[in-house]
Write a structure and sequence with these properties.
Length: 126
């Protein structure tokens, strides 16, 4: 029996972007800046923190190359597309100085099954 070659290990961190999402109607309903912000949230996911992923509009704007006001609109796009869910909404005036926390809807949250809200966008367009 022949031995299989072992693949080379990657010596750098990477983010896996699921094809079933990037080929969905929900994905194509979002602007490129909104997609970049979704990837920024996905990059902060460590395998355990879904629902507790912190990303401010300022950080998102820097990542996507837009203003914080535009980034806020892009978060709304992602919420409407079902790709993100806000688990803790904060504002600048709340006195806490905390960023909102987000959940990726295609991944489980705290032992609960994934909500997959983005699939509902698929049904709306058909």
């Amino acid at each position: 029996m022949a031995r299989r070659k072992k693949g080379t290990k990657l010596n750098f961190p990477f983010t896996a972007v699921p094809k079933h999402i990037t080929r969905s109607d929900a994905w194509f309903s979002c602007s490129p800046a909104a997609r970049l912000i979704w990837i920024a949230v996905l990059e902060r996911y460590n395998g355990e923190n879904n629902g507790e992923i912190s990303l401010s509009v300022r950080e998102a704007g820097d990542y996507a190359g837009c203003t914080k006001n535009t980034a806020g609109k892009k978060f709304n796009e992602l919420l409407n597309a079902g790709l993100l869910e806000c688990t803790m909404k904060t504002s600048f005036n709340n006195g806490k100085g905390l960023a909102s926390t987000w959940a990726l809807t295609h991944l489980p949250i705290g032992g609960k099954a994934a909500t997959n809200f983005w699939k509902q966008t698929e049904n709306k367009t058909q």
